[in-house]
Amino acid sequence: MESITVTIAPERGHVRVLARQGRRDVLRAILGPASESHPRAASTLLEGLALWHQQRLAVVLCVDETSRGSALSLSDALDYGRESLHYDVGLAFPVRRGGRRTHGRTDFGDLRRLSLLEVAR
Questions:
Q1: Distance of CA 82 to the CA centre of its chain
Q2: Where are the beta strands (DSSP E) in 1-121?
């Protein structure tokens, strides 16, 4: 069974989540803002996904200069990714081009690229 990589991108106004098993999407979601979610919402979502697929997840948390990633409680005070029985979190720092994001709200291409980098490691 191929491992599952979950890429999470907290952004202004919403959080994009992409879960991939190999090169196949198993979950795509656009959720409400991280600042309005329960402190354990992200970890509970990841635990549920790991239990559903009966395997530990590799999680890529996209963070930028606005630090919205800390609102999800998936990194510690030193900005290291948390790990649990169900998942291991690594941090990614996406590059902006020309001062703007290069994707739209429903485009998951940037998250797919980060997911492929995780699979290639």
A1: 12
A2: 4-11, 14-21, 24-31, 57-62, 87-92
Of 94, 84, 31, 32, the closest CA to residue 59 belongs to: 84
Nearest to 59 by CA among 77, 46, 70, 68: 46
Residues shown for the chain = 121
CA dihedral for 87, 29, 26, 119, sign (positive or negative):
negative
Domains and CATH numbers, the chain: 4-120 (3.30.420)
Instruction: Output the pLDDT for position 66.
Output: 61
Query: Greater confidence, 111 or 39?
Result: 39
Amino acid at 73: S
Q: How, if at all, do strands 57-62 and 14-21 pair? A: unpaired
